[in-house]
Write a structure and sequence with these properties.
- The protein is mainly α and 979 residues long.
- Among the domains are: 71 residues, DNA polymerase, domain 1; 98 residues, 5' to 3' exonuclease, C-terminal subdomain (DNA polymerase, domain 1, Orthogonal Bundle); 65 residues, Winged helix-like DNA-binding domain superfamily/Winged helix DNA-binding domain (Arc Repressor Mutant, subunit A, Orthogonal Bundle); 132 residues, no CATH class; 84 residues, Arc Repressor Mutant, subunit A (Orthogonal Bundle); 65 residues, no CATH class; 72 residues, Arc Repressor Mutant, subunit A.
- Helices cover 52% and strands 9% of the residues.
- A three-stranded antiparallel beta sheet has the order 1-3-2.
- Strand 25 and strand 26 form a beta hairpin.
- Helix 7 packs across helix 9, helix 12 packs across helix 17 and helix 24 packs across helix 25.
- It starts with 14 loop residues before the first helix and ends with a helix.
């Protein structure tokens, strides 16, 4: 296997890494393996993470290459085609022979038609394409692409000797130089691969972005979407390759090719000198000097270039050494044509005052008045100096400005140093008094703008941070520093000088466990003192504001607030509550009052998973994550009570008593706690309303007797094992329109043989656990979606599911779909095998690591058991195997189950922060891509990620759209990149 010819698009690199390598001219693994870490650092847009990724791939393919060299017999064709000259020879051979696709032996009619309909007339157009490249042909499918690739390979093998002979006969003596006179016309040169390197050299000297070209918008947009950015990216593409670009029609392609021909003819003389090897005449010092200065035009007029960026923009051939380029740059710096600031070279333009002094159309007095004006002096001050009226001074200055404007209109090339800030000034609002200290905009610069009646803009300064097209990075960094001037560095991050922001820091640092508000206020003031923040009544807690802060903290999404002004830090925005709300099934409750204690008691595992410690915390959390009025008009009453719709607490307790009488007071209290979460005080208040039914510690009620005939008819209408009592009442009313609904009572239900359980009844089974176990364990596979809806009010169902999952009696293989373990046993799977599966993962994963089954698989850490693999289940199945192992914590979010090795609380925030810290810095789109490709977590909105890491030590640069583990790391990377 010859790995050198493999396209870098086939080795699984991230989009960012692939694009950066491709723009650097690296197309194959062989070309990539010629690089090392040091040379990779010189490639633009390759960050640390991308380089680490590429180095791992290089190591992998180096090993593959070495192994192939030792173990595998060499394929003659692969070896021969690894030489670029030989690949070109194949194309030339087929081009000269005009061989068409119908000559391919063994090609199916379907595949031939795919080529025919795509306009492929000759084999030389596709002969060296692999399957991936063939798939870019419009209308191609994977089967045909595979068949064509194999048939082409077979064709080359059959004709290899003829191709070699043709190649030998057409070789020119290497020692004989090419003269310009012997070179073909430029449009012939582009058809011949041997001239392609010369063409690229000449084109890169005259390269421009596709955005700047005079092409139809459709052409530019589709080329940009396909990943092409500059002229050099498209100049060698053939018509067939343009046709492979999605949504490029024939007419648009004609316009692109016409433009390309005109462009090449425009640089033909330079191209021919380059092809003839006359590098010195093409790149004299004067030419290089001119080319360097010509970089500073258009959007780069006031832009800066690092040495690496300048080399890339100039695209000089290898014959021009870097030292020579540095020497010319040095001369330009010495001559004040360029200046070197913050690791970048900027074009130096004269100040307006210098130009003003040399302007001959204005007399000296007028020049002095203009100069005084831009330096901030008033018309009155100037008038006093010259003994004139203010109006006369204004007229003189206005006349001078008209002459200056006329000159600037005549010569658009005239630029002033002050113009660097023109775009910023015209677009953004800022305090002019702060401009000099924070933004580097002098008073004279602002005076220059005002002199020429350039109006200041009104856009918010924050918007400038994202204005990458109009503002240089260095200026945006100054703006960011200016906007951060009112922030302080607290506990590893920059925090705005506001009491609310600093409260959040103190909460996170000191209130992980419950504290009183009074204790918190002491922590807060003491922390500010320890941080040596000067006393300021707008920042510190004082007696005057102490009450208002309780209201703010009670509403905070960083706090769980409870009775008696007690609180605990809880990152509400850092979590995903889908699983919690799905489990509570709030939309199934109607016209009922509950205490959140019911949920605490019914779902202890879920409360532990979300670190909810009591009913008061759950009440406060639900109030903050569920809008009041949702879920059948949900309302939050005094802790811990919640109401759905219209509810009557007294009637609810009475119904419990009536449905279960005779019943002791203690049993009724326990039943009210189980059904509604009512505590002793709530139950006692409600039960006082029906003391007439209480005697000797028991509540009793006379149940109405149902006739035997009606009892038998009702029982016949109730064939199922489980019913809610309310359902039976409705069935009874339909059977007997004149019936007394109170006859449906525990006494008569027991007469029919039902086991009466609070609000529901059961028959044919002794207990709910036995019934639910039957539903879950009887079938080989079961979908519980309908059951979850049916048994919403019955906590025992969820408990039965959880217990059978933990004991591996049933395993969830897709959401809400379970397979019985006996099915696996029939396939040879044992519980010991599953324990070994979990144990291998525990041994291979480091403590404190986050992972998913997909990430284990991509890292090669997912144990491979043939019997398990043959079952064909998705990753959800393997995730649920791991749920049975207490060594792993877990949480569901972003559409997957995320695990952590160890006993720890998992949140979206903790997971994202861990990924960012491990990367050091990461582009947000790379992070989202990594979450999907590596972890199987789908993020639909990048703002969701940004929001999760707010108020942490992580720094997000919204200009670069990049996360940094800390702000210090952000500044370090800027310095390394020469920003």
């Amino acid at each position: 296997m010859d790995v050198s010819s493999i396209s870098i698009g086939e080795i699984g690199l991230s989009v960012r890494s692939y694009n950066a390598l491709r723009r650097a001219g690296i197309e194959t693994v062989g070309q990539l393996l010629e690089y090392n870490e040091e040379s990779l650092l010189q490639i633009r847009n390759l960050g640390r993470k991308s380089i680490d990724e590429i180095l791992l791939k290089m190591e992998e393919y180096t090993q593959l290459s070495n192994q192939a060299a030792q173990d595998e017999p060499k394929d003659e064709l692969e070896l021969w085609l690894s030489d670029e000259n030989n690949r070109n020879a194949v194309v030339e051979y087929l081009r000269e022979k005009n061989i068409r696709p119908e000559y391919l032996s063994g090609l199916s009619l379907e595949s031939y038609n795919k080529l025919l309909f795509a306009g492929i007339e000759y084999l030389h157009e596709i002969v060296l394409m692999n399957e991936e490249q063939l798939m870019m042909i419009p209308g191609m499918d994977p089967f045909s692409a595979s068949e064509i690739a194999k048939t082409l390979n077979s064709f080359i093998r059959i004709h290899l000797e003829d191709i070699k002979s043709h190649c030998h006969n057409n070789q020119e003596p290497e020692s004989e130089p090419i003269s310009e006179a012997d070179l073909p016309p430029v449009m012939d040169m582009i058809q011949r691969p041997e001239y392609h390197s010369f063409i690229l050299t000449a084109v890169k000297k005259n390269d421009h972005s596709l955005q700047s070209l005079d092409l139809p918008p459709r052409a530019k947009n589709q080329l940009l979407r396909a990943g092409f950015r500059t002229i050099s990216d498209i100049v060698l593409l053939s018509r067939e390759q343009f046709m492979a670009v999605k949504n490029l029609g024939a007419g648009t392609i004609d316009k692109i090719i016409d433009w390309k021909e005109g462009y090449l003819k425009g640089i033909e003389s330079e191209l021919r000198r380059t092809a003839a090897g006359d590098i010195s005449s093409v790149y004299s010092d004067d030419v290089l000097r001119t080319e360097i200065l010509s970089l500073y035009q258009g959007e780069k007029t006031f832009g800066g270039f690092s040495l690496k960026e300048m080399e890339e923009a100039l695209a000089l051939p290898q014959e021009i050494p870097e030292e020579r380029l540095k020497k010319i740059i040095g001369k330009l710096l010495a001559e004040k044509e360029l200046e070197y600031v913050d690791f970048r070279c900027y074009r130096l333009y004269p100040h307006f005052t210098v130009h003003l002094n040399g302007f001959r159309e204005i007399d000296d007095r007028s020049k002095d008045m203009v100069l005084m004006r831009i330096q901030g002096q008033t018309l009155e001050m100037i008038a006093q100096k010259y003994g004139l009226q203010r109006e006369r001074v204004r007229q003189i200055i206005a006349k001078a400005v008209v002459k200056l404007k006329n000159e600037l209109d005549r010569d658009k090339s005239i630029k002033f140093d002050e113009d660097y800030y023109r775009y910023f000034y015209q677009n953004y609002a800022f305090n002019k008094k702060d401009a000099s200290e924070w933004l580097g905009i002098s008073e004279a610069t602002i005076g220059y703008f005002e002199l020429f009646d350039i109006k200041q803009g009104n856009k918010a300064l924050e918007a400038a941070l994202e204005d990458t097209s109009g503002l240089e990075t260095s200026l945006r960094l100054k703006i960011k520093t200016y906007l951060n001037r009112n922030k302080i560095f607290m506990d590893g991050m920059w925090v705005e000088k506001k009491r609310s922001k600093m409260e959040d820091v103190v909460l996170k640092k000191f209130c992980r466990d419950e504290v009183t508000f009074e204790e918190f206020s002491r922590f807060y003031n003491r922390f500010l003192e320890d941080m040596e923040i000067p006393y300021d009544e707008d920042l510190y807690y004082t007696d005057a504001i102490i009450r208002s802060r309780t209201n703010r903290l009670a509403d905070s999404r960083n706090v769980l607030w409870k009775q008696n002004e007690r609180l605990r830090y809880y990152d509400i925005n850092g979590r995903d509550y889908t699983e919690l709300l799905d489990t509570l099934h709030l939309d199934s409750y109607k016209n009922i009052e509950l205490s959140t204690l019911k949920f605490i008691n019914d779902y202890p595992e879920m409360m532990k998973q979300y670190d909810i410690r009591d009913q008061y915390e759950l009440h406060n959390l639900l109030k903050k994550i569920t809008p009041e009025g949702s879920y059948h008009n949900l309302k939050f009453k005094r802790m811990p009570q919640i109401i759905f719709g219209q509810a009557d607490r007294d009637a609810a307790v009475f119904d419990l008593m009536a449905e279960n009488a005779p019943i002791s007071a203690k049993e009724l209290e326990e039943l009210a706690r189980s059904e509604y979460g009512y505590d002793y005080a709530v139950f006692t208040a409600a039960s006082q309303k029906f003391t007439e039914y209480y005697h000797n510690g028991m509540y009793s009620i006379d149940h109405k007797h149902m006739s035997k005939e009606r009892l038998a008819a009702l029982h016949k209408a109730l064939p199922d094992e489980f019913y809610y009592i309310e359902e039976i009442k409705k069935i009874y009313s339909k059977l007997f329109t004149d019936g007394d609904i109170t006859e449906v009572n525990p006494y008569n239900l027991k007469r029919m043989g039902f086991v009466v359980l609070s609000k529901y009844v059961l028959q044919h089974y002794e207990s709910l656990y036995q019934y639910f176990s039957h539903l879950l364990l009887e079938p080989d596979m079961v979908d519980v979606t309908g059951y979850r809806s049916r048994f919403t009010y019955v906590q025992m169902f969820s408990q039965c599911v959880i217990e059978n999952q933990r004991s591996l009696q049933i395993i969830e293989y897709e959401p809400n779909k379970f397979i019985n373990f006996r099915v696996l046993e029939r396939e040879g799977i044992t519980s010991e095998m599953i324990r070994d599966f979990c144990g291998e993962i525990n041994d291979s994963v480091e403590d404190g690591c986050y992972f998913t089954v997909q990430s284990l698989d991509s890292d090669g850490l997912l144990p491979q058991y043939d019997l398990l693999s043959e079952l064909g289940f998705s990753e959800w199945f393997y995730s649920n195997l791991l749920l049975s192992d207490s060594r792993f914590s877990h949480q569901k979010f972003f559409g997957n189950i995320v695990f952590f090795k160890g006993d720890s609380e998992i949140t979206i925030k903790s997971f994202i922060l861990d990924l960012i810290h491990h990367s050091g810095s990461v582009d947000i789109m790379d992070l989202i891509s990594d979450l999907k490709k590596r972890f199987g977590c789908v993020v639909n909105d990048k703002s969701d990620i940004i929001r999760r890491v707010q108020d942490t030590e992580v720094y997000y640069d919204d200009i670069l759209e990049r996360f940094y583990a800390s702000k210090d790391m952000y500044y370090d990377e800027l310095e390394r990149e020469g920003w």
